[in-house]
Amino acid sequence: MKFKFPSIAVIIDSAAISLSRFPFVMISSFIGAFCHLYIVEHNGDDVWMGKLSMVCLLGIGWFTALALFAESKKIKAWKKLLINLFGALLLGFYFYFLPELKLFRVVDYSRYGLFFIAIHMLVAFAPYIGKGFGNGFWQFNLALFSRVCSAALYAGVLYIGLVLAIAAVNQLFDLNVNEKRYFELFIIMGWIFNVWFFLSGLPDDYQELEDNTHYPESVKVFTQYVLLPLVTIYLVILYAYLIKIIYQWELPKGWVAYLVIGFSVAGILALLFVWPIREKEGNTWIKSYAKWFYLAIYPLIILLGVAIYQRVRQYGITENRYFIIALALWLFSVATYFLFSRSKNIKLIPVSLCLLALFCSFGPWGAFAISENSQLARLKKILIKNAVLVNNKITKNHKELSLKDRREVTETLRYLNTNHGLKSIQSWFGKTDFSFDEIRKYDYRLGEVMTLMNIEMASDYYPVAASTSQKNFVLRADYYSTNALSVKGFDYMFEGLDFSRASERQLKYELDNDTLEIDCDLADRLTIIKNNTEIYSVNTVALVNRLIKEKKITLTNDYSFSLPKEKMTLIDTQQKATVKFIFSTISGVEENGKRKVSSFNCTVFVKGN
């Protein structure tokens, strides 16, 4: 087989045709690339560009689906324009209601992922809405798959080649190319070249696809000798595990759900690959394999159901568990359809996945509403049991909660805050000195919520204090803050100083004609010496206590909570020097009202008085 590189004229013609067929796709591509380049050039410091690039990424698939649908229906140009403008309006609404990226929660990312899946499933069947599912549908999706792989390969090879060329020129001619340019080139290749190359090879003659009986032998070989044997191996493993848990009469492990879903999806994909040749002579095994495969799924779905039921019974429904349940029901429906249906319409698979993703993404029946309500009910049950929540109001005069219940409350509040926010429980509290909306931005407020409940935080991920009178605490600054550090008014800055109670540290610096030493013993004092003269000394525990008191910090033992940088900043002025501390982390132990500092990491600014 001869391989020919396309000429420049062919490339230009192909690009022009793609722009003519998919103008809104390319507009999304260019805007998305611009936004991404802007973010890189300005170090991510922009509220709108990140949101816009995410919406543009959806727009590439969305406008591709609309264009393919209009093209297959031979809709007039002005109607195509109206359809695309309506599609742009929907994306605009989505953009408007998206929060800032720094305020994104798991729910926002998950819903975006569901829309992404739904749109890409829509592309798979958009030209065949209202049509049959014959050979043309399979050939079209094979072309889609082929173009995705080819575009990724061409873009990847071209990117590597250009990077090597830039690196060579940079080294040979001492151009001092900024490292950002390599990533910016990657963005251009991904957003523009990759999309353009993909679109340029999409088929537009749907009758020709229907008449095309060519079946790539490589697809059959890959499926028959690679994919199906792997599916069979995993089937044997899963059935061996099923026999094991029945014999030992034990509950299945939770992760088996992911294995069952992965196996089932791989098996269905393999059968789709060989669908056109199932009736041909010598391939009768395909029908038999498909029948036994779908029959074999049923016991595994039961296994999956038992595994996920145990998790739901113990910990309630979360988004992940909801998605597993939804996929289990989808697998059951697909298996039943292909076993008993006469038509066996393979278009059902992308259509049903598209509808399922949309179904899960919104509404009181969706993954997010059901998960939030389930976890709220679980939290409410624990609080009512311990008389913390009485008549839908929080009371502080209650018995001390068990360690198990404290962990349950901590983890549930963390889940709600991370995924949904805590506005749903604001009505339980009286007037507070902070808004529950702030918790979305500053998760250290979650510790204050638990203080309002008079419940000490506990976590499965961090050790509990050795006795009931002892409390571990951790303070951590927000690592994602992009604020620069100003050195105005100070003579020296020492960044990333790390001190531990396990050992006394003595750090020595030669700066111009001065010698500075920073000595720190966390059991005693931190001292700064300049040219053999002590200019600053402070008790480390007193320093931390002052920070906690002045900044009104609620202590917590959980590293997942962070404080804004200003709350971890303290200025201390003495006779010979003014010192500014910006702490990254502080950890210690509190017992009977007294604190011990175990370690801290900080940046120190020093000014001589």
From TrEMBL:
Keyword line: Membrane, Transmembrane, Transmembrane helix
Organism superkingdom: Bacteria
Regions crossing the membrane: 20-40, 52-69, 81-99, 111-130, 150-170, 182-202, 222-243, 255-277, 289-309, 321-340, 346-370
Xref: Pfam families: DUF4153
InterPro entries: DUF4153 (IPR025291)
Protein name, entry field: DUF4153 domain-containing protein
Species of the source: Solitalea canadensis (strain ATCC 29591 / DSM 3403 / JCM 21819 / LMG 8368 / NBRC 15130 / NCIMB 12057 / USAM 9D)
